[in-house]
Amino acid sequence: MRLLIVEDDQDLNRQLCAACEDAGYVVDKAFDGEEGHFLGDTEPYDAVILDIGLPQMDGISVLERWRRDGRTMPVLILTARDRWSDKVAGIDAGADDYVAKPFHMEEVLARVRALVRRAAGHASNEVAIGDVVLDVKAGRVTNAGMPVKLTSHELRLLSYLMMHKGRVISRTELVEHLYDQDFDRDSNTIEVFVGRLRKKFGSTFIETVRGLGYRVQDEDAGA
Fold it and tell me: What is the C-alpha separation between 218 and 121, in angstroms, rounded?
């Protein structure tokens, strides 16, 4: 899953990026509203953490422009604790949730998980396909009750496919949501990791839909 963090405080931006990366997300960052708006307008993100008080363009304006232009990614806004009006303005502008500063990093991560989960149509942190169970919160996968060891790249790819189970996901979409903007999009990395996952979960677990992409789905859904 790919996140955008827009926060002008350099230390806080760095802390948010580190926490999100440790949680398994791919992160792009911006330090002002104009840069943040540009990235959110041109790159696909699974969620955005957006500060309200930004230089060059404030967070409310950034969010309003995104929503006006049809950008629907979930947005978590960061507000000052004593500014209830910022919370109201953010929600009215199209924010999906908010966290007041100062905050505990675990709360931010929990709210991001919830936003990503709900956007994909899941109410629980666990996603199951047959015997394969993904625990989004713990970043753990089991097969028939047994833990499966995955690299961070394998886990990100499997998580994206399982979170969007039943839908054909193109290679382009996978690259855009699993890697940052500097990734070489002409490489065969996706194909390599799909091959590795098939060795661990069976050759039919990830289906290739010729000319379109990849899909995982419950066995009864494919009947």
Answer: 15
Each residue of 133-173: pLDDT tens digit? 999 888 899 999 999 999 988 999 999 999 999 999 999 99
Count of domains observed in the chain: 2
Q: Is the same domain home to 101 and 48?
A: yes
Task: Indicate if 201 and 133 belong to the same structural domain.
Answer: yes
Q: What's the domain range around 11? A: 2-119
Q: How many CB atoms lie within 10 A of CB 99?
A: 20
Give the global pTM: 0.82
102 preceded by a cis bond (ω within 30 of 0): yes
Identify the burial level of 196 via C-beta atoms within 10 angstroms of its C-beta, where 0-12 means exposed, 13-18 middle and 19 or more buried: middle
Q: Do residues 165 and 88 share a domain? A: no
- From first CA to last CA, the distance across the chain in angstroms is 29
Per residue, the 3-state secondary structure of 191-222, as one string, reads HHHHHHHHHHHCCCCCEEECCCEEECCCHHHH
